[in-house]
Amino acid sequence: MARIQPVILAGGTGSRLWPLSRELYPKQLLKLVGDQSLLQATFTRCLALDNANLPIIVVGEEHRFIAKSQIDELAAGNVAILLEPVGRNTAPAVYAAAQFCRNCSEEELILLVLPADHLIADVNSFNAAVQEAYALAKKGRLVTFGVKPTSPETGYGYIKKGKGSAVESFVEKPDLETAKRYVESGKYFWNSGMFAFGVTTLMEQFELHSAEICEAMSIAVGRGKKDGPFFRFDAESMARCPNDSIDYALMEKSGVVSVVRADLGWSDIGSWQALWEVSDKDVDGNVTSGDVIVEDVTNSLVRSEHGLVTAVGLKDTIVIETADAVLVAPMNRAQDVKAVVQRLKKDKRDEYQLHRTVYRPWGSYTILEEQENFKIKRITVLPTVKLSLQMHHHRSEHWVVVKGTAKVTCGEAVFLVRENESTYIPCGEKHRLENPGVIPLELIEVQNGSYLGEDDIVRFDDDFGRQT
C-alpha cells in the first residue's frame, strides 16, 4: 500500500506580519498561536496521520539551522531537510521533493504538500480530508484542498468546483466585488495551497506542462550534495529554473485535477487581521499578548514582545511592538504592511531583515547598542558548542563573561575565561569562542573599529559548514 509522504514547504518571509516576521526569522518559525511555531505545529499534525512517513522539510538556505533546531525539539528522529540555495517558488520545490523521493526509494509514494505557515484548528477534519485526498491521488488525480469561504477575502486565490470532485478552474486573487460574487454563488473554494498526488503522476504531469522545471530541478537534485543533516540542491542548476507557483506551472494546466473540501478551521495567517480573527478575544474583542495594558480599547490586536505597551481609546487597531520597531495601523489596512517592508528594503534598513536578537546555529546574539565606531552585543552560546575559527579585518573585540565559562582561542593561545573575567581579541587575530560547559554561556561583546558589519568575518574552520 502506497504510503503518504508529507512535504512541508518552509520557505517565504511573511512580510505582512512585520515587524514580528523578518526575512531571516519569518512567520513559519514564530509562535503566533500556542506554544509551538507554525512549522512545529504543521510537523506535529503530520505525525498523527495514518500510513505516513516522517515529513520532509524544504527550506531556504538562510533558515536551515533554526528550522532544524525547531524540528529537533520535537524529537521525531532523523528528518530529511532539503535546502533551496535560491528561492524559486513552490513548483520547483515540489518537483525537487518528488525527484528526491524517487531517487531514495522505488516505493510509490503519495506526496502530501503542506505550507509550513498555516493554522489548522480542526485536526480530525484535517486527517479525514487527507485520507479522502489520498484515495483520489491513488487513482491518478492531482488533488488540491479547497476551503469553504467565510467572507469575500481578496487575499486568497479561488477554486471553482466542477462535476464530482473535478476542478473547473483556478482564479487569481479577485477584487472585492468579484470575491463577493464568488462567495454568494456557493461554487467557489479558497485555494488553501495544500496538495496531494502520487510521485509518478506528478512527475508525468510536470513533464507534460512544465518541462523546463523538470529539466532544471532534475539536474539540481542530481548534482545536489549532502551537507551533514541537510541535502542541498545544486545552486547553478536551480538558478536556471523558472520561478513559478505550482498552481501556475501545473494545477491550472492539468486535466486531472480534483478538489477535496476541507473545513478545517483553516487560516494562512497572512496578515495581522487574520491572526486577530483566529485568536481568542476578551469581552471587548481584543487580542493582547505580552506586557499590555488597554483602556477603552475594542476589537484591536495589541502585542508586546519587549516592554510595556499601553493603549487608550483605540478601536479596530493593530499595535505591534518589538525591540527595534513599532507598527500601528487600522485593522482594515493590515494587508498594506507589506508596503512598509518594501520601503525598508528600498531605504536599505536592516529592520526588514533582522531582529535585534539574531539566531545562529551556535546560539544567538542581541544588539544592545550600536554607534558609528562601536557595537555592544549580548552573546549566548549553547552548551558544548563552538563558533568558527575566524578573524576580522576592521574590528577588535572585548569579551566579558557574565555566566558560564568560555574556552577562548586567540592566536596560538588557548585558555579559559570565567564569570566576571574578560579578554581582548585584537583586529586581524585568529580567534574562536567555545562553551565547554553544560549550561549556556553568556557574555557581553564590545566591538570597536571602522567597520562593524557582520560580513567582516573570515572563517578558517566551522563545525556548521559555513563559508567565508
Structural write-up:
This protein is α/β, with parallel strands linked by helices and 468 residues long. The protein has 3 domains: 3-267, Spore Coat Polysaccharide Biosynthesis Protein SpsA, Chain A (Alpha-Beta Complex); 281-340, no CATH class; 357-461, Jelly Rolls (Sandwich), CATH 2.60.120.10. Strands 1, 2, 3, 4, 6, 7, 8, 9, 10, 11 and 12 form an 11-stranded mixed sheet that branches. Strands 20-21-22-29-24-27 form a 6-stranded antiparallel sheet, with no helix packed on it. The protein has a 4-stranded mixed sheet with strand order 14-16-18-19, covered by helices on one side. Helix 3 (90-104) crosses helix 7 (211-222). It is globular, with a radius of gyration of 24 Å. The two termini are 47 Å apart.
Features:
single chain, Spore Coat Polysaccharide Biosynthesis Protein SpsA, Chain A, globular, 3 domains, eleven-stranded mixed sheet, six-stranded antiparallel sheet, Jelly Rolls, alpha/beta, 468 residues
